[in-house]
Amino acid sequence: MIRIKDSTMDNFTYCAPTRILFGKGTIPAIAPHISAHGVQRLLLVFGGGSARRNGVYDALTAALRAAGILWDEFWGVKPNPSLEQVNAGIAKARVFDAQGVLAVGGGSVIDCGKAIAAGVHLDDYWTFVETRKPAERALPVFAVLTLSGTSSEMNDKAVITNEAEAKKWSIGGQCLAPKVTAIDPQVQATLPWSLTASSGIDAMTHVMENYFRGRPATAGNSFFREETQLQINEALLRSIVLSLNALQKDSASYDARANLAWAACWGLNGMSVAGLSSGDWTSHALEHALSGLFPHIPHGAGLAVLFPSWMEEVYTFAPDIFARFARNVWGISCNPADPASVLEAADKGVTATRAAFSGWGAPDNLSHWGVREEHIPVMVQNAYSYRALGRLVPLNEEQVTRIYKRVL
Amino acid sequence: MIRIKDSTMDNFTYCAPTRILFGKGTIPAIAPHISAHGVQRLLLVFGGGSARRNGVYDALTAALRAAGILWDEFWGVKPNPSLEQVNAGIAKARVFDAQGVLAVGGGSVIDCGKAIAAGVHLDDYWTFVETRKPAERALPVFAVLTLSGTSSEMNDKAVITNEAEAKKWSIGGQCLAPKVTAIDPQVQATLPWSLTASSGIDAMTHVMENYFRGRPATAGNSFFREETQLQINEALLRSIVLSLNALQKDSASYDARANLAWAACWGLNGMSVAGLSSGDWTSHALEHALSGLFPHIPHGAGLAVLFPSWMEEVYTFAPDIFARFARNVWGISCNPADPASVLEAADKGVTATRAAFSGWGAPDNLSHWGVREEHIPVMVQNAYSYRALGRLVPLNEEQVTRIYKRVL
């Protein structure tokens, strides 16, 4: 094999096999795909009931009926879906002898659907989660997306909260990737702004968790080691920002809904991390520890508070990529040859991020959710219980404590 | 279903299920994937022999041997692979009773491998191409990429030239998408610059064929109907430009090879066209007519000549998107509120594209390949034989003639 001079971009594997049916009126089109996968008995998994109000339930079940598919229904999946719900869903799928799962909702519902699909083949769901192994078998998963943000519609992961142990842990595995997902942005037109904003911020943080691992190919160079992926990630971030700004003015704009949905889909489907050394993911670990203890905190809202605090903690360790972020996402210029200018731009990028999140009405502190200083040590311990924190910069408990405390 | 105000982005289906093994030393890793797909007898398809010189052949066959896979070899696929070669490959695959095809090369070799994989199930390959139907069955296809540009490594299409009829036509079909592709950018380190440049330009034109269908969401708005996709496409274009500039100085830069390879992969795998109304693809039709008649013309080099001429022919019909392209790819600013400024920027964007292609050493005229004025009517007829030309702007024969003549 040929010797090459500089070898710096990380190796990676990319595979996102989900077929996406995107656009107006695409929900009924999923039914023939379900049949084509040989599924005749289907468990439908829903959230709190919005699918009945926005017409999705009627459109979908008419199409399933026309395709000759039998189904049972599991309703009531809540944000931060719980192990109890997963176990109840598994029991229902077994009784019905389901051959596939169709999740209708946002990331929480789809995650719960995936966990059920894997769980029917397991003795005990949580025991398996604790092994941290990828799932090898699952019923085929399908999805109809009604809230964009998590990428669960196009990835092979599910996050479930064990409330008794205050642990919000994920499982993965190729078999969990939805075979087909229908995304009709029209059904998101009536979502409340706060949910739109926090879900959009969630999608941004998925991209950002990976983005900040980017490094200049050579010091002072404008060409980065993972140039293509950084460019794509910036593209996703800019489009989410533009879409959210447009939706804040007009929540029914189809184009803004569609562009937000399409960008969010790519935030966490394996794309945004390509070559970027598994990303950092400290903020997500901290949010999981937070909402593990306070399950009523929306995932995206928790991240909106924690992510800028993480940025503030670490940007001095990797000013080049933070300055690039400031320039290419927020239009903050700097002189790349002057370290002081780079550092200043990096700092301004953190401020701009916090300002954008606040401008969209996201919370900027933990106290209003009832989090108090005494909870922080518990969350710090919990955050470390899954793995060591800080891939970009290894973080000790003192630093992690500061990230929470800064936004208390 | 909810009524929404402005509904403009096109519906689309996206599916690119190929598993990509990307990075240094990933070629042997494909062997266990081939076994996992149940393939024990494999037809290897190669180009002219570079795989023997750059170590790919040895690394790959050692891995196949270790995985217990038997193989036969089909060598000599040329650029613009011919129907004759496809038929010879089909015969070889049948005699060997191949259960799968592994193409080792650039887009031509992979296209030929796909055609062979589909062809073993067909009575006659070209008769099927003429039906313009998608292929329904094919042997599983695998690929080891040694020249980035076409995206064939991650898409479900193959273009084959029927030299007797001077037709360069494609087939498609889900079953043609490679199951797994290994991309080790190291093996491209010794490619001649002209081939690197023309292949990179080829990848750019794939993105650009789709890009120019973008439209402002509302007139004078900076937010476009397909904002996410345009942002991503600009990201791909910028990264290819940066990578080519870096490779022109240092053809062995791993980072530049890797970023070019990763960006090119996304040029034509179904991503760059999402929401963009099937793209335009006039320049490709014109290039196919050109290299159908002159099979020695490299595809990317033909496009480097024709694409700017197409741009010049049509930019006045869609100045907003051409001005956006000029700004976001070449840094040419304009005042979006002033139509004259928009038109001027659009024009400068065409000039900048031509200048970049020339700066990379690409040809800027057809004459030096022996094309003369008398060939133009034949090429025009051939270009129209597949379909009407001009989705962005419908083009008549006079306009198409002008596109060829401008760069004669």
- Which percent range describes the beta-strand content of chain A? 5-15%
What is the radius of gyration of chain A? 21 Å
Shape of chain A: globular
Q: Helical stretch count of chain A?
A: 15
Please give the oligomerization state of what you see.
homodimer
Explain this structure.
Two copies of one chain form a homodimer. The first copy, chain A, is of the alpha/beta class. Chain A is 47% helix and 12% strand. Chain A has 15 helices and eight strands. Chain A has helices at residues 30-36, 50-53, 56-66, 83-96, 107-119, 125-131, 193-211, 227-249, 254-265, 282-293, 299-314, 319-330, 339-359, 376-386, 397-406; strands at residues 12-22, 41-46, 70-74, 100-105, 141-145, 157-162, 167-172, 180-183. The first copy, chain A, has a six-stranded parallel sheet with strand order 1-8-5-4-2-3, with helices on both faces. Chain A has a two-stranded antiparallel sheet with strand order 6-7. In chain A, strand 6 and strand 7 (167-172) form a beta hairpin. In chain A, helix 7 (193-211) packs parallel to helix 11, helix 8 (227-249) runs antiparallel to helix 9 (254-265) and helix 8 packs across helix 12. The radius of gyration of chain A is 21 Å and the shape is globular. Chain A starts with 11 loop residues before the first strand and ends with a helix. The relative contact order of chain A is 0.11. Residues 1-7 of chain A have low confidence and may be disordered. At the A-B interface, strand 1, helix 8 and helix 9 of A face strand 1, helix 8 and helix 9 of B. Strand 1 (12-22) of chain A pairs antiparallel with strand 1 of chain B, so a sheet runs across the interface.
